[in-house]
Design brief:
This protein has 685 residues and is of the alpha+beta class. It contains 25 helices and 20 strands. The chain has a five-stranded mixed sheet, sandwiched between helices. Strand 6 and strand 7 form a beta hairpin. The longest helix has 20 residues, at 584-603. The chain is globular, with a radius of gyration of 26 Å. The termini are far apart.
Length: 685
Amino acid sequence: MTNRLAEAKSLYLRKHAENPIDWWPWCDEALATARAQNKPIFLSIGYSSCHWCTVMEGEAFSDIAIADYMNSNYLPIKVDREERPDLDSIYMQALQMMSGQGGWPLNIFLSPEDLVPFYAGTYFPVDPRYGRPGFLQVLQALRRYYDTEKAELQQRKALIIESLLTSAVLQDGTTDELEDRELLRQGWETSTGVITPNQSGNSFPMIPYTELALRGTRFNFESRYDGKQVSTQRGLDLALGGIYDHVAGGFHRYTVDPTWTVPHFEKMLYDNGQIVEYLASLWSAGVQEPAFERAVAGTVQWLKREMTAPEGYFYAAQDADSFTQSTAVEPEEGAFYVWSYSELQQLLTPEELTELQQQFTVTPNGNFEGHNVLQRRYSGQLSATLEMALGKLFTARYGVSPESLETFSPARNNQEAKTTNWPGRIPSVTDTKMIVAWNSLMISGLAKAAGVFQQPLYLELAARAANFILENQFVNERFQRLNYQGEATVLAQSEDYALFVKALLDLQACNPEHKQWLENAIAIQDEFNEFLWSVELGGYNNTSSDSSQDLIVRERSYADNATPSANGIAIANLVRLALLTDNLDYLDLAELGLKAFRSVMHRAPQACPSLFTALDWYRNSTLIRSTTEQINSLIPRFLPTAVFAITSDLPEASVGLVCQGLKCLAPAANVEHLLQQVEKSQNRG
């Protein structure tokens, strides 16, 4: 027996289709039914590769007693946060206000008449444990509270909605040219401190912070941090750590320790796109560590082999868990990726195993539940012996050698994973939906890496994905966020617009002769401005003006999380567009955007590194006009606030023109002069 979610396109929603809970998707009918029946709404938000979401689905959401009580006393709604990041953002903020922390699954209780939350939590066990109450107890207590404490309920909701509205409306800041450099320094120092190695907790990539830390190294700010060293160390942690899949490429979500050893094993497209771009930037900044180039190349091979649809777009994610055998009831975390010592002894020669132990964290006892996660001990080039050993592990995992396996078809759900005759291990489930924002992050990473490492394949993959979006993601002339097996759906949100415009501009920067990327960026930006720009407050709303009716507040994304903030990216895009088109309307919007968020940049610089990156673009933007040959020689360099324009109409006896914002310098007489101007322009006082 299935519920309403059986017909959902979302893999995450379909995972709950056989629950005894009478789930609804988020829709007008569900909200109207809750109001008509005076039932509080139980809203549960998660995503397909979320481990604890999967645990709760198999426990509390599959429990008959819980389901009976839920169905009688609540209107239960399931939301995929990757479909509706706007809803997730609002209610996650409410969870953080109520509990002081956030995470998924996000389980929140709403009044049906106004959709304002009154209680929230994350994982609830079936029975009391881990210091948490049993889920049925929670449901019963909250229903009593909803029915009997109306006055307190209204007071509680009033405080929550007031906090959400206050958070959504930021005070304007004032633009002070003399203050910008100090503000930028504070933002850089804060972000550099955030990514400075610590001795406790989980380790996340946090690329918006690392990107700002790296770009700020060119200013020689006085600071207690060595920005270049900290930026380089983050690259080494990523490329050498267990967060990277040294056997088959691709980065896991994060590690559960401060030593970058044991990952949470899901692989998210958005992490991989950002990390590829960052490692390429590090290389271009002069940190040419062989492990960086290897990690980028391996990630692109994983992307091409496992995460690229035949149509050219990129899939969203791969689960952390997988089945060890087809008869298993539940999948195990990391099973596809880890190695027992006995397996390694069986697969490798004594010489290979000895060298693997010397170079990687391999021991008889292992470092993860008796198994080994591979983490490199040293930087540098891997030997031919080690590469051969890793190739053997690849063959054991996939059943085919890396040279022979061009495409590895995804397991789209648990049933496919368990019933397909895999030649090697049973793989993790892949969420095959296309998300514009996440594809855009990967396109940007590929474009950057293509320019830095001079790899045409990287550019080819990026261009195919971008063209798929341009050709398939418009319905009734409106940009759409998702694509499920050829069907575009859900109006694009601010992160989709901002990140796709950036991706198009990054493709243009990698190949300036191809003007169509810029032309398409302009068209997407026009739609973005029309439907999401906040005339009253400045900056971009998360959702369009004609699709916000079911939201209790309209937010403007300014805080960076696992992905960069939409407004930080969008403001930087506006500066780039102004340089490339000479249309100063873009620069006016960029200035208004920075003004809109200036107070939060002062008050909470740790929240918004992408806004400081946008400020860097605004202060130090540089347009370089030159010949194709000269610009091609500049593309691999670290020029974080430069854009390129190819021209043959240069002043006599010059090799290029450098323009700083709204003024141009004297024509550069030779290449050395041009480089001096560019370097100086990137660091204006």
